[in-house]
Specification:
This protein is an all-alpha fold and about 80 residues long. The chain has one domain. It contains 3 helices and no strands. The radius of gyration is 15 Å and the shape is globular. The relative contact order is 0.15.
Length: about 80
C-alpha cells in the first residue's frame, strides 16, 4: 500500500483498484485486468498529479500479475547501459 506517500489521491486510487479487482474473476488474463483498471480510473482528465499517482498505484498492482516482468535481459533499451 502506498497511501502514506501521496495521501488522498493514492487512497482513492487504491480503493478504486481494489473495487475493480473484486469484480474480476480469479482466472482473468493480464490484458483483461489492464482493461478493467483503465475503465476504473476515478479522477476525470488523465493528466496532472492525480493521474501520475494513479499510474504508480496501477503499476504496483499490475506488477503482482504480470506474466513477464521486466528484467535487464528482456527490457527495452532504456534499461540498457550505454557503452562509454
Amino acid at each position: 500500500m502506498m497511501a502514506g506517500r501521496d495521501g488522498f489521491w493514492c487512497r482513492r486510487a487504491e480503493q478504486r483498484i481494489a473495487e475493480a479487482h473484486a469484480r474480476l474473476p480469479a482466472d482473468v488474463s493480464f490484458a483483461e485486468r489492464k482493461v478493467a483498471l483503465r475503465a476504473a480510473y476515478p479522477f476525470g482528465a488523465r493528466s496532472h498529479y492525480p493521474y501520475k499517482v494513479w499510474l504508480r498505484c496501477q503499476r504496483a498492482y499490475l506488477a503482482r500479475y504480470d506474466p513477464a516482468p521486466l528484467t535487464p535481459e528482456n527490457a527495452p533499451l532504456f534499461f540498457k547501459r550505454r557503452a562509454r
